[in-house]
Automatic annotation (TrEMBL):
Keywords: Membrane, Transmembrane, Transmembrane helix. This is 3-oxo-5-alpha-steroid 4-dehydrogenase C-terminal domain-containing protein. The chain crosses the membrane at residues 20-39, 51-71, 91-109, 118-141, 153-176. It comes from the Eukaryota. The keyword Lipid metabolism does not apply. GO terms for cellular component: membrane. Residues 116-285 form the 3-oxo-5-alpha-steroid 4-dehydrogenase C-terminal domain. Its main location: membrane. PANTHER family: 3-OXO-5-ALPHA-STEROID 4-DEHYDROGENASE (PTHR10556), STEROID 5-ALPHA-REDUCTASE DET2 (PTHR10556:SF43).
Length: 285
């Protein structure tokens, strides 16, 4: 039973329309260069339109893996596909694994989360739905659905395995970078609690992360997520165009934020404090 007739799951015509226009998302994301506001994280500000951090994060990230799982269980039946190749199942599992961490574990591991503006929350949901539909429909029915078709796309076990290695390197690097940021927040919360017990008020304190990949760059968690989805695209092959679009869309979404964040670090701590660190691309920027 379709949730939205022709769209969830998407018909082939609608999926092809979506995947065509989804390639142009970087144009929309590039509008971030024109504004400095971004209503979440350290740039979050007081607003009546803010949603509590954990609630917003879970509800804006979970639609991705939920949508993909729904498509993977309904679209093959609609298309008369009785069983999908192992490649499709592995790629779907990797996507779900990433977003279960991001949507479920990540917010509860965070010592604290700043509120998220409803505009950012809404755009994130749209991104998740479009991305999961593009990737999910390719994996469920509109990409290769037999081993013969995979071979016709030039499938290679070595390339698939190499892509998985890159994916897991990115996933692990992303996790440990997140953990370094969490450790700073834990220390800050302990510091604030200590002052509160003494009856003192204390302003929020920030510091430049120094451990792990943060020794070399300011936003390794962004960079390692790009590494992760590069591996995903490599595993699926050049024909896995929704994965390519996902990677490019993430890059054009996150790069302006990293540039803005680099300026924030420079203004907050001074150039000397971040000297020798790249912002997000090692050896380049």
């Amino acid at each position: 039973m379709a949730v939205v007739e022709g769209w969830l799951p998407a018909s082939r015509d609608n999926w092809e329309t979506l995947t065509f226009w989804w390639q142009f998302y970087p144009v929309l994301a590039s509008f971030q260069w024109l504004v400095s506001w971004y209503g979440m994280g350290k740039t979050s500000v007081e607003s009546k339109l803010n949603i509590p951090g954990r609630t917003a994060w879970i509800t804006m990230e979970a639609p991705g893996f939920i949508t993909l799982l729904y498509i993977m269980t309904t679209l093959p039946v609609q298309q008369g596909i009785t069983d999908l190749p192992w490649q499709n199942k592995v790629l779907a599992s990797l996507f779900v694994m990433h977003y279960i961490y991001r949507a479920i574990f990540f917010p509860f591991l965070q010592p604290s989360m700043s509120p998220i503006h409803v505009a950012v929350w809404s755009m994130a949901i749209v991104f998740q739905l479009c991305n999961a539909t593009a990737i999910g429909c390719w994996l469920a029915a509109y990409g290769p659905t037999t081993h013969v078709q995979w071979d016709a796309y030039g499938f290679s076990v070595a390339r698939f395995a190499f892509g998985l290695v890159i994916f897991y390197v990115g996933l692990i690097g992303n996790y440990f970078s997140d953990e370094e940021l969490r450790e700073i927040r834990r220390s800050e919360m302990k510091r604030q609690e200590k002052f509160k017990k003494q009856g003192k008020t204390v302003d929020k304190h920030y510091e430049v992360p120094q451990n792990g990949l943060f020794k070399y760059m300011l936003f390794p968690h962004y960079f390692m997520e790009w590494v992760e989805w590069t591996g995903y695209w490599i595993a699926g092959g050049l024909a896995f165009t929704p994965a390519r679009s996902f990677l490019l869309n993430e890059f054009f979404s996150m790069f302006p934020r990293a540039v803005s964040g680099g300026k924030w670090y420079k203004e907050k701590f001074g150039e000397e404090k971040i000297k020798g660190k790249y912002v997000i691309i090692p050896g380049v920027y």
